[in-house]
């Protein structure tokens, strides 16, 4: 059976199983994310060999590109300016102070324990900074969990993918061979061009649909945002503007100036993003094997553990000083910084970049993400249930 055919079959079977057990997974420590990751590992070249993928397989680059584009597009759609104005204090602390501190602390651990150079260490810090509430679904979807905590985790994870991206691109450029590094002006033009396309194209499209000359029917309304996304993707590929910043900027622009387009896109957009996430997790798992994990030195395992249990908790502990969060809410926010889907794709981008430390960084990223998915997605139900118990102290304020 051809590789692509085998991949499609394995994904379809795994998806069907995930759908059939999804209700049970919401009530137990079972996790669809862990399922796809483990299936990828078992079916990959290192175990059964059903899906013999390598880092340079075309499907890896294509899936990583498309998945990250549409997930960032959907993430941006969740955080229009009105949403940020309504609830910015706690997420603002986590993003503006917690994110840079997490990158710095993770980088310090990588430089100390693994011996990476500072550009390489900062790169792995930026790759591992984004979080994903999908791996803590039982927590953010539980109405007994305080609303502001769920909002904090959702808004933070929706924005930190896009905020970490420029750092990933900059540190990736700094980590390459000096002769192969792009000129700073070229990199800046790509980043600024992506943002400009992501703002201008959706704004113009939304205004055209709202004019007297054009009007989308109810049947085609959900396709408006998809058409805008495809147009942005095509323009960026043709102009070499950064398509990921364009996707994130476009989502925010549509959410801000096109509430109807945002509302109609939301159901189908979430499903598209979820399918791409699961497919990327399976492919990511297929690149990992017992032999792959055995190549990681002891210091790398220590780094992965500390990146999960130390870097984010320490960063958010500083960020939330003086906030009104209860102790239980603080520790829950500290723990649920799962290394999410964006980190998976950023790791794949590093692997395909050809920088000298690409293989080392990917090994560390893969290990950290694997441990994070298992740890966070298997404890969300347990911790969510703790909020059904009374806590001795409750804050008097509703925000940070």
UniProtKB/TrEMBL annotation:
It is found in: Cell membrane. It holds the Pfam family Na_H_Exchanger. Coiled coil: none annotated. Residues 15-376 form the Cation/H+ exchanger transmembrane domain. GO terms for cellular component: plasma membrane. GO terms for biological process: proton transmembrane transport. The keyword Lipid metabolism does not apply. Keywords: Antiport, Cell membrane, Ion transport, Membrane, Transmembrane, Transmembrane helix, Transport. Its main location: membrane. One of its GO terms (molecular function) is antiporter activity. InterPro entries: Cation/H_exchanger_TM, Na+/solute_symporter_sf. The chain crosses the membrane at residues 6-25, 32-51, 57-73, 94-115, 121-140, 152-174, 186-206, 298-321, 333-355, 361-384. It is a multi-pass membrane protein. This is Sodium/hydrogen exchanger. It comes from Nakamurella multipartita (strain ATCC 700099 / DSM 44233 / CIP 104796 / JCM 9543 / NBRC 105858 / Y-104) (Microsphaera multipartita). The lineage of its organism: Bacteria, Bacillati, Actinomycetota, Actinomycetes, Nakamurellales.
């Amino acid at each position: 059976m051809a590789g692509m055919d085998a991949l499609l079959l394995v994904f379809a079977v795994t998806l069907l199983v995930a759908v059939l057990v999804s209700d049970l997974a919401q009530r137990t420590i079972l996790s669809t994310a862990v399922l796809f990751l483990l299936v990828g590992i078992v079916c990959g070249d290192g175990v059964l060999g059903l899906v013999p993928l390598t880092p340079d397989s075309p499907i890896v680059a294509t899936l990583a590109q498309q998945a990250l584009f549409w997930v960032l597009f959907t993430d941006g759609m969740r955080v229009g300016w009105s949403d940020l104005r309504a609830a910015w204090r706690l997420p603002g602390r986590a993003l503006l102070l917690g994110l840079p501190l997490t990158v710095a602390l993770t980088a310090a651990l990588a430089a100390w324990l693994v011996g990476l150079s500072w550009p390489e260490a900062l790169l792995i810090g930026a790759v591992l900074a984004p979080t994903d509430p999908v791996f803590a679904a039982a927590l953010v979807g539980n109405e007994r969990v305080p609303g502001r905590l769920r909002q904090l985790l959702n808004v933070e994870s929706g924005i930190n993918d896009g905020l970490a991206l420029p750092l990933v691109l900059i540190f990736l450029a700094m980590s390459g061979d000096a002769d192969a590094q792009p000129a700073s002006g070229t990199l800046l033009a790509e980043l600024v061009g992506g943002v400009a396309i992501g703002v201008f194209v959706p704004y113009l499209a939304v205004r055209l649909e709202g004019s007297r000359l054009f009007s989308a029917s109810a049947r085609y309304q959900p396709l408006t945002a998809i058409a805008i996304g495809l147009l942005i993707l095509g323009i960026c590929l043709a102009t070499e503007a950064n398509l990921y910043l364009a996707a994130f900027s476009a989502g925010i622009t549509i959410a801000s100036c096109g509430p109807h387009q945002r509302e109609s896109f939301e159901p189908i957009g979430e499903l598209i993003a979820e399918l791409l996430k699961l497919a990327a997790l399976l492919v990511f798992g297929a690149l990992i094997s017992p032999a792959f994990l055995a190549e990681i030195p002891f210091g790398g395992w220590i780094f992965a553990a500390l990146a999960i249990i130390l870097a984010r908790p320490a960063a958010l502990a500083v960020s939330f000083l003086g906030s009104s969060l209860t102790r239980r809410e603080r520790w829950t926010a500290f723990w649920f910084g799962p290394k999410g889907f964006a980190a998976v794709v950023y790791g794949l981008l590093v692997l395909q970049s050809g920088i000298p430390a690409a293989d080392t960084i990917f090994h560390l990223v893969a290990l950290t993400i694997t441990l994070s998915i298992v740890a966070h997605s298997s404890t969300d139900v347990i911790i969510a249930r703790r909020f059904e118990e009374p806590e001795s102290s409750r804050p008097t304020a509703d925000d940070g």
